[in-house]
Design a protein that fits this description.
Chains A, B: Homodimer. Chains A, B: Its main location: cytoplasm. Chains A, B: One of its GO terms (molecular function) is ligase activity. Chains A, B: InterPro entries: aa-tRNA-synth_II, aa-tRNA-synth_II/BPL/LPL, Anticodon-bd, Anticodon-bd_dom_sf, His-tRNA-ligase, HisRS-like_core, HisRS/HisZ. The structure is a homodimer of 453-residue chains. By secondary structure, chain A is α+β, with helices and mostly antiparallel strands. Chain A has 2 domains: 339 residues, BirA Bifunctional Protein, domain 2, CATH 3.30.930.10; 91 residues, Rossmann fold. Chain A is built from 18 helices and 16 strands. An 8-stranded mixed beta sheet of chain A has the order 1-5-6-11-10-9-7-8. A 5-stranded mixed beta sheet of chain A has the order 13-12-14-15-16, sandwiched between helices. A 3-stranded antiparallel beta sheet of chain A has the order 2-4-3. In chain A, helix 7 crosses helix 13. The longest helix of chain A has 20 residues. Chain A is globular, with a radius of gyration of 28 Å. The two termini of chain A are 47 Å apart.
Amino acid sequence: MQKPSLPKGTRDFGPVQMARRTYILDTIKETFQLFGYQQIETPSMENLSTLTGKYGDEGDQLLYKILNSGDFIKDVKADDLEKGSGAILSKVSEKGLRYDLTVPFARYVVMNRNELTFPFKRYQIQPVWRADRPQKGRYREFYQCDADVVGTDSLVCEAEIILMIRRVFEKLNLRDYSIKLNNRKILTGIAEAIGEAGNEGPLCVAIDKLDKIGWEKVKEELTQRGFSEASIEKLAPLVSLENDLVGKVEFLKGFLNSSEIGLKGVEELEEVFEILLKMGVDLAYVDFDIMLARGLSYYTGAIFEVKVNGVSIGSVSGGGRYDNLTGVFGLPGVSGVGFSFGVDRLYDVLDELGIFPTESHTSTRLLLTYFDQAGFGYALSLLNQFRNAGIKTEIYPNQVKIQKQFDFANKKEIPFVGVCGDEEINSATISVKNMVTGEQLKMNLAEAIAVVS
Amino acid sequence: MQKPSLPKGTRDFGPVQMARRTYILDTIKETFQLFGYQQIETPSMENLSTLTGKYGDEGDQLLYKILNSGDFIKDVKADDLEKGSGAILSKVSEKGLRYDLTVPFARYVVMNRNELTFPFKRYQIQPVWRADRPQKGRYREFYQCDADVVGTDSLVCEAEIILMIRRVFEKLNLRDYSIKLNNRKILTGIAEAIGEAGNEGPLCVAIDKLDKIGWEKVKEELTQRGFSEASIEKLAPLVSLENDLVGKVEFLKGFLNSSEIGLKGVEELEEVFEILLKMGVDLAYVDFDIMLARGLSYYTGAIFEVKVNGVSIGSVSGGGRYDNLTGVFGLPGVSGVGFSFGVDRLYDVLDELGIFPTESHTSTRLLLTYFDQAGFGYALSLLNQFRNAGIKTEIYPNQVKIQKQFDFANKKEIPFVGVCGDEEINSATISVKNMVTGEQLKMNLAEAIAVVS
């Protein structure tokens, strides 16, 4: 008899984990909806032609490919074997599993461009798969949770993303965090201003590591990437710039005065702040981080990253503005801005801080228990009255000793137990025990509903 | 430039479809939770050793297999090619995609048997994949929605399944349907009573087609399967039995008086009815259908099937009791009962009947519009006040002609539009237009919140 196991890097989510994940996801969904975002879902499988070449060579390696159905090997000849897996792949597989939610979204927008109402705000919460080496906190199947608005360049969208992040964190009782904000145009301007015009790509890649490896190592990397000593020296004051938001803006206006695009980036940033102020919102939690780069090359405007302070996991959310989401599928000029929440990371953060709600909204409130057949019948007669009052209620299904029924309630962390004995039957009452305080009181049905609700 | 497409048999779900699917699934989830069921999720990928051999030869063919990562072809030799796909499969693939939710659930129970609290009530709503030929209403990726309780043989579970189905249908405004109920033991008893003891397998398979092909064709099939003419003749009165519930029970007690297991089946059925009556529930919608067989061979007790009347799609839910869920994974004796809702089918039924709610709970209620920069700033100042009152609100992000903003509201079916012009700014009001009635009224913020809520 085989002993079953899970594929490496995958997980089951049991009842407790699911209740907590649902708590996080419901909070996020509710917020997205409040801001007018609409949910879509795309298939788990995409044609390999849709996926391949979108994530770099390494990404192509990490794509899960699905074996063609039926006689999958029929087109493979003996001499193909010598050419290796790369040459054989297209003969045995034409579909792959979703690697992220961005490429499927781009495909969706292109295929539905005539039906969609632009600006189109969508959110999408689905698993993605990557054949990566599993390690702590990295899985081969994990959920992504993306929101994007496409078809507008309005900076209202950036301001609203900040508001959505703040709302989600407030609802999750996360209070110590910062929303790091920068603009890719500023980084382009900095490259110009330090005499490395056009080199913002390698500049961003190096700067992206500042938090992890420190300024000295970043300097080494920049030197290796061909940045002159003079350029690197010009960069230094930005790295060590300690100032408030207004101070940073003023500094940059001077620093970038020779770079048109750099000044445009500062201007966009200021407009986002202005929109927030017009909305009656202060700039709490917002941290203008000139050194925030984010690796992805397709960002062209604002970039975001959210870090929770005082926990081992850092970044739990991020995103940015792009101006060519769908060009690769033949529809140029679709600009937009998007961001995503790392659901697994948020889970770990709430767990580490111990701030998951103690009571789940999805689990049983009341277990009805009984001593004998008469009590069983009486409990059955009450059962649906509790449910009709909206109370999540169970009856222990088999007639066993009452202690076993109480054990069941304890293990399932059911907060109330209703006892149905002869006394309760005769007085048309029920004894309700609060499993947290231990208090037990006899009461009628209406009172019991009020107590348990 | 490539034109993107979807893999055959897969679908995107756009905002309207998602809102409707969410409506159905939220109704089902809420009901499961009210009855104490807890959600779990299992990985999309399972080891092929977990999946293979569980769904028959045809099922094994329909499993989606995932190509091993890296140099997947390295173990395949030239002479393997001659042996064909079957021999090569195990060398190039060790994982497959979930084919249903039952086998993963059985695996989950076995792997977590020491942590779970039994009786364990779980529900699970996830996509499954089958490499079937796509046709109308049949997809290669579709959602299943299962609820099972394992570790108890109490017939309270059967009664509660009937209640859950009734509650879901009531909430979805489905009124014309029947919950067909039978018991596998009765079918075993019938086989005994007509002199075909032990042949309930082929009997069930043939009877299962009664609805589709009629009694004459079923008779032919039974003859082909080796049933004697005398047996088939004895079966005839059951097929044409028109009687109420009590009448059918009485008839069967006579018909099955020589079959111990048959009488046990009738007894179980009567107990389910008795439990329902003790719960204060009538037997409305319940139809004791002696000819309900359901093909799956692992059912051993009650079997269910729910049909909506007056629509082209028939069965939308079904299930039954089994007494050996996990034996194949080395854990014998785990009995339980489960059922599932066909989400795609329920969708099509509600669509065909035109009974989806006209207003979605997930989409935008109010769009704020404006004529110029001043109005834009004013609208921004109101925006979050609406949201803080719980109203799903959007602002048109770019300054365009107001007609275009109204067009946007119409296309997104947003029921209210707030107009922010000079008059409104000067009087600290907003003009709210009801997009359904066409009525437009100027009011202050508190009034607007009340109207739109």
